Amino acid sequence: MGGAIARYVAEGKKVIKVVFSYGQFSHPHLKEEVVIKHRVEETKEANKFIGISETLFFGLSDTKIKTDAEKYGIKEKVKFLINKYKPEKIFMPSALDPHPDHQAVNKIVLESVDELKKPYQVFAFEVWNIIKETHPALYIDITPYFAKKLKFMKLFKSQWQSMYALWIPVYIRARSYGRKNNCKYAERFYKLR
């Protein structure tokens, strides 16, 4: 959702990013501490480039967010952050994303929002989705920010395999969603709440 982030920043909105896991198991040939250090540094650099105001790291284990979240009371932390920042909109990965950590984040955030019993707008975005969501869609024109989105993606150097695998789908989706939104490039989000 780099294009939407760039657009919101340009509109003067404060964007807070919460990273649930460092992705430390993505490079099994390197020590976990090395991967974590590199991932934190590149995330901070990329977030500064795109204009994210603040980045928070929960530090949960890669591929174990679901079990770690229960063990470390992450739902309470999410509720605390929502109460603290009172976001206009909350974005998270889709529940239909095949990655188990993305599914876990979706579930944690939705349950947290529902337990707060306040009308927050919650949207899901696609990463690895194959199955299309059935929720109402919000399209955001990112035409002036598309090049910045691509540069943002390139800054995640440790994830180059994932980023390059997403490169063509990102372009195809942006053009397709742009046509539906009468613009050149757009991002689609699903309204869950």
Domain tally: 1
Low-confidence stretches: none
What is the number of E strands?
6
Name of the CATH superfamily: LmbE-like
- Taking all Cα atoms into account, the compactness measure Rg is 16 Å
CATH architecture: 3-Layer(aba) Sandwich
Mean pLDDT: 90
Features:
Rossmann fold, 7 helices, 4-stranded mixed sheet, globular, 193 residues, 49% helix, single chain, 6 strands, two-stranded parallel sheet
Write structural notes for this entry.
With 193 residues, this protein is of the alpha/beta class. The chain has a single domain, classed as LmbE-like (Rossmann fold), CATH 3.40.50. The protein contains seven helices and six strands, in the order αβαβααβαββααβ. The strands form two sheets. Strands 3-4-6-5 form a four-stranded mixed sheet. A two-stranded parallel sheet has the order 1-2. α2 runs antiparallel to α6.
Structure summarized in a few sentences:
With 193 residues, the protein is α/β, with parallel strands linked by helices. It contains seven helices and six strands.
What's the layout of helices and strands?
Layout: H1 2-10, E1 16-21, H2 32-50, E2 54-60, H3 65-71, H4 74-85, E3 89-93, H5 100-116, E4 121-125, E5 137-141, H6 146-154, H7 160-180, E6 186-191
Parallel strand pairs: 1-2, 3-4
Antiparallel strand pairs: 4-6, 5-6
Helix pairs in contact: 2-6, 4-5, 6-7
